[in-house]
Fold:
Amino acid sequence: MKSTAMAILNTRKVRDYRTVQDMLKTNAKGVWGNNISYLHVSVPKLQDNPISNPLQFVKKAHKSIKRKRNSVATILIEKLLRMEHKLKGSEEVAKNIHRTVRNSSLLISNMVGPIEQMAWANHPIKDFFFTLCGLPQSLIVTIMSYMGMLRVTIRTEEGFIDDQKLVWNLNKAFETILHEAQIM
Structure:
């Protein structure tokens, strides 16, 4: 069975990020919100493509996603979603994205989060994570940064994955990638 991952992207340029104080000014240059697009990424079968060097696999996947992220298709999808939003409204855009998401096996989302500490009613927020809900995937991975620290959230369908095996395999994969990166 062929597996496809759908990566949801924020296409807003990093240089457009401003502090909250800058965005609250009446003549602010930065804009609120994100520009959303998505791309499909083939997931290789382990038995068809044995990974002898996990770092090489990560670099190859990163290069492929970066190439696709900067393609005309990603920009076109973003513009079509904006146009659909203006013509038909946010509910129709949501239905369109849901139909597209339904045809993928895995969903990956990344987000550059705040670099400054946030507060709620003057109480500092130490950590926060996000995940996408209401989607038909059995596995969803969301990645974000908050105050320069990486946060990874994995949401699975109940009973779909043995959580102890998943944690063990993730730790082993991170250790292997770290080891490979240190000897390169």
